[in-house]
Specification:
The chain is mostly helical. It is built from three helices and no strands. The protein is globular and about 40 Å long.
Length: 83
């Protein structure tokens, strides 16, 4: 099985449909991956892991392959130029 943090949207959908993995599990895996790399990369702005977990629990997670943005403008966070 593909590691959840690197699975495509189609793979995540298949895993969810067959109940092999839930959106909560996928979100946990992605957050763990981000938290492992972010201290070295400093690449994410406005990351809210608790909000992501809450959305996953509610089933509102939008899984888009390769999407690293966490919607800072929707959270009323200041958006730096070029973001």
């Amino acid at each position: 099985m593909t590691q959840l943090h690197s699975a495509s949207a189609a793979e995540l959908l298949a895993l969810h449909t067959t109940r092999e993995a839930s959106p909560v599990e996928a979100t946990r895996a992605l957050i763990a991956h981000i938290e492992g790399w972010e201290p070295r990369l400093h690449a994410i702005y406005g990351f809210d892991a608790e909000d992501a977990r809450a959305q996953a629990r509610l089933g509102v997670v939008q899984m888009a392959a390769g999407c690293g943005r966490m919607r800072p403008a929707q959270r009323s966070w200041p958006v730096p130029p070029g973001a």
